[in-house]
Structures are given as C-alpha cells and as structure tokens.
Design goal:
Layout lengths: L9 E4 L3 H4 L1 E7 L5 E8 L6 E12 L11 E3 L5 E4 L22 E5 L5 E2 L4 E2 L19 E4 L6 E4 L6 E5 L5 E7 L14 E2 L2 E2 L16 E4 L7 E2 L16 E5 L4 E7 L5 E8 L4 E6 L5 E5 L4 E4 L7
Antiparallel strand pairs: 1-2, 2-3, 3-4, 5-6, 6-7, 7-10, 8-9, 11-12, 12-13, 13-16, 14-15, 17-18, 18-19, 19-20, 21-22, 22-23
Length: about 300
C-alpha cells in the first residue's frame, strides 16, 4: 500500500460497546477497495479479536485516492459512512451524482439488522426512513449525495446537526451542515459545483435542488484540504461551548465557526501552526483533541489561558 489514502482510516465503537464489545472499521484492502467491517473485543479488554472480522460492506474503487472515509454512529444509532467519489480528478466517472453507486455519498445503515434478496443475504439492514428507500434509480443506503471526499464529519451531540467537511478539487474547500431534524436526501453539489462556484468555473451549472455549503474558503495562503472537527460540548472550557473547530491539513491553520443570532455563519482564524492536522477527536466528556501527522502527536484543544 503506497498511496496515502490506502490505510486503516477510522474506528467507530458501537453505542452498546460495553455490552456487545463490537466496533467498526473503515480500511482499504489489498485490491484497493473500501471495506467496512465489524470486529469484537478479545478476552483482553484493550485488544481486538483479530479472527472476529465480519465484512459488512465492500465498495470497489476505480482509483487510488479518496479510498478511505469516516465511519461514525449517529444519535439515531445508525452507522454513517463517508465515501469519496472514487478519486482521479474532477469525478470523471460522475459518481457523486449517480444514484446507482455508493461513491461520492454519505451512507446510513443499520448494523444491528440483516436484509436479503434473491441473490444474497446482507449483514446490515436499511433504515426504513432512509430518503431513497423504494426508488429504483437510487441505492437505498444513500443518506446524502454530491460529495467529493467527505473523510471527516461529525454530529453535534447537543443538537444532532451533522457537519460534513468536503475536500475540494483545485480551488475551494467547503463545509456542509445538515440540520439535526433533516430527513436526508441532500445533494451537496459535486461535481456540478465546487464550493459556491460552478465546476469547472468556466461552465454554467444548475444550482436548483442543491444544498449549498455554509462555509467556503479558497486555496490561498497554503490552504488546500479541509479537516473537519467537532462542536465543543465539554465542561472544562465554558468559553468554547457551541463552537465548531476545523483546520486545513496543508497549512496547519485552525478556525472556529459560530452561527450568529441573525443566522449567518461566521468563521475566525484562531491559530496558525506548522502541523499537518489530519483529524479531530471527541472524548466521552465532550472535550476535543486533534492529531498531527507532522510529529505523530495528539493535542488537546484548550483556551489560551490554560496553555
């Protein structure tokens, strides 16, 4: 495995992990395809049972980038899976707008159920309220479409709002926010649009029916790849309550995002680092952390006076 994207990407613990010992991973197999699998804890509480792997879903990938994505349980108990558009450049296969493929989508499945058709039994079920259930032109696993590389997303534990950081192509990075009460089915625009612009910018595009991002920033000043974070809901730093943190992998900059009383979103640059920020994390208490590939360390997010 030589490509950056071809790795173990994320681990998500089942909401009932304390009772069932199950956790789920997203990784790229030796053929270059995305695999979502279930594992169980071994007799040692801090070790997995390597023989317990149960493949839940395998998604073929046409290229060597955008292969990995996040897996996370939503507040509804279902597993959400972020899938890139299949890689290459510009989504040449049109996957993000194609309802017959799982690429370029956010998926939502029930890992506690099973389903079957005439050909096979699936180790997961489709939630009955998924937006495209019963449609012949759309895969029923799809929760949202029109995404390029949503490799970092998170739920606000207080509101249920879903923050999706979608890495752009050559010009813009974007953040999409799906309200907690959404019924799903949003189309976030790729590859008709990149950020707020048509893609390519020299071409016209239809914006009707698209859910536009709440935040867009250009590839300037070293910025080139958004790393989505979390809304702070901890108790150690009250001044951070309700603030969303995100970063740029290339520049190392860290921003915060707030929704003002008038309803508009406002972002503020709070730190300019030399780190390659690859991910954010949230602990059980709602405190936030970030990881840096530059030095291989994990940092806690705090306020300045607590440094």
């Amino acid at each position: 495995m030589q490509d950056f994207a071809m790795v173990l990407v994320t681990v998500a613990f089942h909401p009932a992990y304390q009772n069932n010992g199950q956790f789920f991973v997203n990784y790229t197999n030796q053929e270059g395809h995305t695999v979502v699998a279930r594992y169980r804890v071994s007799s040692h509480p801090d070790m997995a049972d390597a023989a317990s792997e149960e493949v839940i879903l395998t998604i073929e990938q046409p290229a060597a980038n955008h292969n990995g994505g996040l897996v996370a349980f939503g507040p509804d108990g279902y597993l959400y899976i972020g899938m890139g558009d299949g890689g290459a450049a510009g989504d040449p296969w049109g996957n993000a707008q194609n309802g017959q493929t799982l690429l370029g989508k956010l998926l939502r499945i029930d890992v506690d159920g099973v389903a079957a058709n005439a050909e096979q039994v699936f180790p997961y079920a489709i939630p009955t309220d998924n937006p495209f259930v019963g449609r012949d032109d759309m895969r029923s696993e799809i929760w949202a479409l029109g995404l390029r590389n949503p490799w970092r997303f998170s739920f606000d534990r207080a509101t249920g709002d879903l923050y999706i950081a979608d890495v752009g192509q050559n010009a813009y990075e974007e953040l999409d926010v799906q309200p907690g009460g959404s019924a799903g089915g949003e189309n976030y625009g790729w590859n008709r649009m990149e950020g707020h612009a048509c893609y390519p910018e020299s071409s016209p595009c239809r914006r009707e029916g698209l859910a536009l991002p709440v935040l867009v920033y250009p590839h300037q000043g070293g910025d080139c790849s958004i790393t989505g974070g979390f809304v702070y809901r901890g108790s150690a730093f009250p001044a951070l309550m309700g603030i969303y943190f995100f970063a740029d992998y290339c520049s190392g900059k860290i921003w915060v995002l707030r929704k003002a009383s008038a309803g508009e979103w406002q972002s503020t640059l709070v730190l300019d680092t030399d780190m390659s920020i690859s991910s954010f994390g949230e602990d059980e208490a709602g405190e936030l952390y970030l990881t840096s590939l530059w030095d291989g360390k994990v940092y806690q997010v705090t306020t300045k006076q607590d440094e």
